[in-house]
Write a structure and sequence with these properties.
Helix content is 57%, strand content 9%. The protein is α+β, with helices and mostly antiparallel strands and 689 residues long. α9 packs antiparallel against α10 and α13 packs across α21. The longest helix is centred in the C-terminal third of the chain and has 38 residues. Bound molecules: flavin-adenine dinucleotide.
């Protein structure tokens, strides 16, 4: 935000001489349970909307409810009936790993829930299961993801029928526990730089897997330290040739490598496994390091969907280049990102719910000789939590859309959809997980000292979720893929190409951007205008188009002297801002659509409040950008700020209904501070009184 501008605005308000009196008056009114809005607000621009919204909570919950609530309830019932499978607050790493494995076995073999069946055929159901088990223990959600989405997903998505026939049942019933061994000590984000080799031996019709040096040791591999029997190992495929070099490097491919004996569970000859040790979070997952010393595997263990080796060592592929094959291989792995984006919204819902329920209950200070006020009635607390609640709704609708598109893509394999889902999953995973990671700290702090008690969950949520920003693609690296995709489409636009659905807005908004902002609209500051989805969406789109146009010109200029790589690095922060701006635009568009489609008028009105708050808060946070180019005039900026504060207050008035509509089961918000009533007695019992 433009801090000079903010100071000016504050100074203007101070000069009104009203601010202190108004705040006191607001606070004194908030203590009444009816939460009638303060009269001073009514005398300003907000007279028509002062009444508290009466929200039909059931209708809102129904609208928010996922398609697969039934299976989620089945999962909750199972774990509620099994106290021995619930994770205690204090648990050692080794016990946590065993418990997590037992939780997964219980889910699959006792509750009869078979997530693997849905990985390819019904991803929406798979992600619903993942969300539910993640709320039991996030380690369990990740362990399940390693087994089914990463290890299992690599077998069915990168392999062919022979692999599916051989491995499906064992993966499904957990006889074939496995790992996804991509990352190495020296290479994480740069997957094309991996050094592990798989050399074809035509005499024995086998591949020989080797770790050529310590930097190529597979590192951080989930399920490797204790439970995995197999690993999908990503390695450079080396083929013998008849030329002077003697071998040819065909690039990174995936291979199934058994790592432990099926009966004894002993590590197999040539495989060395070490434990990555105690982590900041997710200690129920056994991450390990793998080294291979001339480990032989049959030729059939090459996952050969995108490239194959025949008996005589001839390489064949339907894709013409190493880069295309690499792209297709990684493209099949986007499901993990989709799952993380979706799961991260789940964590945000939990955390926002705990913090908001606590803030509704907790009282501190108040006007002289009057009862103390709820801390959620402080403007500062609203400022911390209400835009967050609005964002949670925004991300909910955006990730539901992502999951739908991903499912459609798995069915149709439509090329444009594949490109769309690839960039959208990278962008949303990155944007949402970064937001949630920060929000967890805000929520902890918003609950004061009690937020720091482990029993109240913020610590474990924060520690477990933190790595969502890094695995399945580092967020900074993923945002660059979004920016690169936007630039590619930008070029296509000017060459007359078509734009895929998510990007099509650029065509129109780029034209608007290239003409000057309309001097009349830059001054419109009426509430109706500011709450008009068209104004909001135009503003977001304008910003993206401007960033895109400018960065394209900068890249072109710097490429001449710095080359492509140097120019990209010179513009990197600009490119990241562009990617975030685009993702915010997509999120807002989906939120606006969701508001429009909500059938119940009162639920729709509550969603509209949240949507307006989301949009205006984002515009206000970036007001410097809009002011710099006179997209909004000074008075309009001031009006946006005022309206944002007012909307925060309005959302606060329906905050209970909004968090209740997430329908989080009790065990998820079991933190005593999150209880709706009797909070203190529950809390004191926990510490032993
Ligand atoms: C708990 C946990 C579980 C994991 N599970 C698995 C697993 O099961 N299987 C597996 O294969 N891997 C796994 N990983 C590895 C994970 O996928 C990698 O850590 C991740 O891909 C990032 O790689 P890196 O750690 O080498 O970070 P790096 O790539 O070294 O990144 C370090 C920093 O450099 C920055 N950076 C890197 N490249 C660029 C760039 N081009 N531009 C700007 N900044 C850049 C990043 O933003 C980051 O801040 C796991 C990791 C952890 C911690």
């Amino acid at each position: 935000m433009d801090s000079r501008r903010e100071k000016n605005l504050m100074a203007e308000e101070e000069s009104d001489g009203l601010i202190a009196a108004r705040r006191i008056q607001r606070l004194s009114l908030h203590i009444s349970p009816s939460l009638t809005p303060p009269p001073l607000l009514q005398t300003e621009t907000c007279s028509a909307r002062s009444k508290k919204l009466d929200v039909d909570g059931q209708a809102l919950a129904l609208y928010m409810r996922g398609k697969h609530m039934d299976i989620q309830e089945e999962i909750f019932d199972f774990f509620n009936s099994r106290p021995d499978l619930q994770t205690p607050i204090e648990i050692s790493k080794d016990d946590h790993r065993e418990l997590c494995m037992n939780q997964l076995l219980g889910l699959v073999r006792e509750a009869g829930i078979r997530p693997f069946r849905y990985v390819a055929d019904d991803p929406e159901k798979y992600f619903a299961i993942m969300e539910a088990v993640g709320s039991v223990d996030m380690s369990l959600g990740i362990k399940m993801g390693v087994q089914y989405s990463l290890w299992g997903g690599s077998v069915i998505n990168l392999g062919t029928k022979k692999h599916r026939d051989k491995y499906f049942d064992g993966i499904d019933n957990l006889d074939y526990t496995g790992c996804f061994a991509m990352t190495e000590l020296h290479h994480g984000s740069n997957v094309q730089g991996l050094q592990t080799t798989a050399t074809f031996d035509p005499l024995k019709d086998e591949f020989v897997i080797d770790t050529p040096h310590d930097g190529a040791i597979k590192w951080w591999i989930g399920n490797a330290a204790v439970h995995g029997k197999f690993a999908t190992v990503f390695a450079r495929l080396i083929l013998p040739t008849h030329d002077s070099k003697g071998v040819s490097d065909m690039g990174v491919h995936a291979f199934i490598v058994p790592i432990r004996d099926m009966k004894t569970h002993q590590t197999l000859p040539g495989v060395e496994i070490q434990d990555c040790g105690h982590k900041v979070g997710l200690n129920g997952v056994d991450n390990g390091a793998l080294r291979f010393r001339s480990v032989r595997i049959p030729r059939d263990n090459l996952l050969n969907r995108f490239g194959d080796v025949s008996r005589d060592g001839t390489y064949t592929s339907s894709l013409p280049t190493i880069n295309k094959r690499f792209g297709a291989t990684l493209g099949e792995l986007v499901g993990g990102r989709v799952g993380l984006a979706y799961a991260s919204v789940g964590v945000l819902k939990i955390s926002a719910t705990i913090a908001i329920r606590y803030s509704l209950l907790r009282q501190q200070f108040g006007p002289p000789k009057q009862p103390e006020v709820s801390i959620l009635d402080y403007q500062s607390q609203q400022h911390k939590l209400m835009p967050m609640l609005a964002s949670t709704y925004a991300y909910h609708f955006a990730t539901v859309y992502l999951v739908e598109k991903y499912s459609e893509m798995k069915k149709t394999h439509d090329e444009q959809l594949v490109a769309d889902v690839h960039a959208l999953s990278a962008g949303l995973k990155s944007y949402v997980t970064s937001y949630t990671a920060k929000a967890l700290s805000v929520c902890r702090e918003a609950c004061g000292g009690h937020g720091y008690a482990a029993v109240n969950r913020f610590g474990s949520l924060r520690n477990d979720h933190d790595i969502f920003q890094t695995f399945e693609g580092d967020n900074t690296v993923l945002l660059q893929q979004v920016a690169a995709d936007l630039l590619k489409r930008y070029k296509e636009k000017f060459q007359g190409g078509t734009l895929t659905v998510t990007w099509s807005y650029l065509r129109e908004s780029m034209n608007t951007y290239l003409s000057q902002p309309n001097p009349v609209t830059t001054r419109w500051e009426g509430e109706d205008h500011l709450r008009d989805p068209k104004f909001q969406l135009d503003a977001f789109r304008y910003r993206t188009s401007r960033l895109l146009q400018n960065v394209a010109a900068r890249l072109q200029k710097h490429s001449k002297t710095l080359g492509g790589f140097g120019a990209w690095n010179r513009c990197l922060n600009h490119l990241l801002t562009l990617a975030e701006s685009h993702i915010e635009t997509v999120i807002l568009a989906k939120f606006i659509e969701a508001v429009k489609n909500c059938p119940d008028p009162s639920a729709r009105a509550a969603l509209k409040l949240a949507c307006d708050l989301y949009a205006l808060d984002r515009i206000w946070k970036d007001i410097g950008t809009y002011r710099n180019v006179d997209y909004v005039a000074p008075n309009k900026a001031k009006a946006i700020h005022k309206l944002t504060e007012y909307l925060s207050f309005q959302v606060r008035n329906v905050a209970k209904e909004l968090v209740d509509a997430f329908e989080l089961p009790d065990h998820v918000t079991r933190a005593p501070i999150a209880m709706q009533s009797d909070a203190y007695s529950q809390y004191t019992q926990v510490v032993g009184f």
